[in-house]
Automatic annotation (TrEMBL):
Keywords: Hydrolase, Lyase, Metal-binding, Protease, Secreted, Zinc. It is found in: Secreted. This is Probable carboxypeptidase PM20D1.1. Residues 257-402 form the Peptidase M20 dimerisation domain. It catalyses: L-phenylalanine + (9Z)-octadecenoate = N-(9Z-octadecenoyl)-L-phenylalanine + H2O; (5Z,8Z,11Z,14Z)-eicosatetraenoate + L-phenylalanine = N-(5Z,8Z,11Z,14Z-eicosatetraenoyl)-L-phenylalanine + H2O; N-(4Z,7Z,10Z,13Z,16Z,19Z-docosahexaenoyl)-L-phenylalanine + H2O = (4Z,7Z,10Z,13Z,16Z,19Z)-docosahexaenoate + L-phenylalanine; N-(9Z-octadecenoyl)-L-tryptophan + H2O = L-tryptophan + (9Z)-octadecenoate. It comes from Sinocyclocheilus rhinocerous. GO terms for cellular component: extracellular region. Pathway: Amino-acid metabolism; Lipid metabolism; fatty acid metabolism; Energy metabolism; electron transfer.
């Protein structure tokens, strides 16, 4: 039998096709809108046990005292330049400062204090209930170098006050945590506090050069004592305010992992000669092209392959329209968001392995062709890539036999700590943020820099990187840059945060989800 294709059948076919198309668009639209108004992964827990026996407040005298202590801490130039270039005089002076300004801690029969690796500090505070697993707070004493000539508004080790801020190297990386943790403990001890849950405080003196003497030896000592930690909290991410378009109110990002690293040395050797008869390409030119290829061909955008997706999903309900629709529907809009994020250096660091050419040396005289040129490139590895994968990509991107590529140092990204409703450390940090900063939304994040806590993986699966410093537009340039500063009010909040965290950590069990 022959089928007859009439005009009517063709119109009918297209009619059905159009109907299917319209229906699909309507369904898609309904799903997107439905999720936009109902999507919330950031759940709150139910009724918390009250562990706050000492209310977090500061008297005017205490505010004056804690500020004075921070200033003196910033004035001591505890600079780490390299393993062989550390200011050991300053580190000794810092030790004396701690003993002087925290007399309760250093005289208390409760607190055990040990020096590790010569200048790092380990404090042990035993709890009244030894069965409760201990936790640990980390911070570091050393700072990166700072030169007033780079454009500081005040000398970097003067700790001067300007418009309600203390300026100085270390004010956000990381003396605010060192002093904040100890100040909180000092005030708790003054008010007769004894913890239920034991805890440790580790203050490294060489974090800025990877912690080979400080963190590494503290971990060795704790391991030799069979210590296991419920959670670890170190420096890291901060409270973002006004830096994420569309986010209503501030967001505290708790680093649940940190990026890996790879540092490679690139070098080119060519015969030297007279600059009046140069070859077509010099060693500098060949190396410059290789470095340019690395900068131009960035590592792939891997948004959604690591915990950075969870960051936006946990904040989704706090975004205004139309951002909220995007964040609640990343199954559809992930490439849109990843494209926007790669536009700024700080958000770009979230979505890919970053490439930073940090050193470039060559040449001896203006009329001599350079025999040798070298450059160092520092990569920060995204959670979903490995060191080996990155090294392969570097080779294939350079793809020039004249350029020697040598591996200098590196490590894989750190394991991802859990951030679900049953995870004690994450939930205690989140609760403490809410106690001290009620307007802040808490979300997991990836720490883009490295911290001493990366040495602690054998002691605990749950390592978090967060300090409650405010991070506002323009602040990214202050980390290791010029005009590092902290507001006086923020430093008071930091002391109260640790004061409350120590008490909150005394809670025995987490509440179940809110019903
Ligand atoms: C939702 C996205 C918002 C993006 C905001 C960017 C987050 C940046 C916030 C804080 C800076 C992170 C510093 C981390 C500590 C670094 C410690 C350090 O310097 N270590 C040495 C090293 O990494 O070389
Ligand atoms: Zn730091
Ligand atoms: Zn640093």
């Amino acid at each position: 039998m022959k089928t007859k294709i009439t005009k009517k059948t063709i119109l009918k076919f297209f009619g059905i096709l159009l109907l299917i198309l319209v229906l699909s668009v309507l369904i898609l639209f309904a799903v997107v809108i439905g999720r936009t108004f109902t999507f919330k992964v950031n759940t709150e827990l139910g009724q918390w046990e009250n562990a706050t026996t000492i209310y977090p407040t500061l008297s005017p005298e205490q505010k004056k005292q804690l500020l004075g202590n921070l200033k003196v801490a910033v004035q001591i130039p505890t600079v780490s330049f390299s393993e062989s270039e550390q200011n050991t005089t300053a580190l000794q002076e810092f030790d004396q400062l701690l003993r002087r300004v925290f007399p309760k801690i250093f005289s208390s029969s409760l607190v055990q204090h040990e020096m590790v690796g010569n200048y790092s500090h380990l404090l042990t505070v035993p709890g009244s209930e030894p069965d409760l697993e201990p936790y640990m707070l980390l911070a570091h004493i050393d700072v990166v170098p700072a030169d007033e000539a780079d454009g500081w508004d005040t000398p970097p080790f003067s700790a001067q006050e300007l418009n309600g801020f203390i300026y100085g190297r270390g004010t956000i990386d990381n003396k605010q945590s060192v002093m904040g943790i100890l100040q909180a403990l000092e005030y708790l001890l003054e008010r007769g506090y004894t913890p239920r849950r034991s805890f440790y405080i580790g203050l490294g003196h060489d974090e800025e050069i990877s912690g080979p003497q400080g963190a590494v030896n503290i971990v060795k000592l704790l391991k030799s004592r069979g210590v296991k930690l419920l959670y670890v909290l170190d420096e890291g991410l901060t409270i973002m305010d006004g830096v994420v378009d569309g986010l209503i109110g501030p967001g505290a990002l708790i680093g649940v992992s940190e990026k890996g690293q790879a540092t490679v040395k690139l070098s080119v050797s060519t015969p030297p000669g007279h600059s009046s008869m140069p070859p077509r390409e010099s060693s500098i030119g060949i190396l410059a092209s290789a470095v340019t290829r690395l900068e131009k061909n960035r590592m792939p955008n891997l948004f959604g392959h690591g915990p950075e997706r969870a960051t936006f999903e946990h904040l989704a309900h706090k975004f205004g329209w139309p951002y909220r629709m995007v964040m609640s529907n990343l199954w559809l809009f992930s490439s849109l968001l990843s494209g926007v994020l790669e536009g700024q250096p700080d958000t770009n660091a979230f979505v890919r392995t970053t490439t930073a050419v940090t050193m470039f040396n060559s040449g001896v005289k203006i009329n001599v062709m350079p025999a040798y040129a070298e450059a160092f490139v520092n990569f920060r590895i995204h959670s979903s890539q490995t060191l080996q994968e990155v090294l392969k990509l570097i080779e294939s991107t350079i793809s020039d036999e004249r350029v020697k590529v040598e591996f200098v140092s590196g490590f894989d990204p750190l394991p991802i700590s859990s951030y679900d409703e049953d995870t004690f450390g994450y939930q205690i940090i989140k609760k403490t943020v809410h106690d001290i900063f009620p307007e802040v939304t808490v979300s997991p994040g990836i720490c883009v820099g490295n911290t001493d806590s990366r040495h602690y993986t054998e002691l605990s699966p749950d390592i978090y990187r967060f300090a409650p410093s405010w991070y506002k537009p323009g602040d990214s340039a202050r980390f290791h840059g010029v005009n590092e500063r902290i507001s006086i009010q923020n430093y008071e909040e930091i002391v109260l945060f640790y004061f409350q965290l120590m008490q909150n950590s005394d809670i025995k069990n987490l509440p179940g989800p809110r019903t």
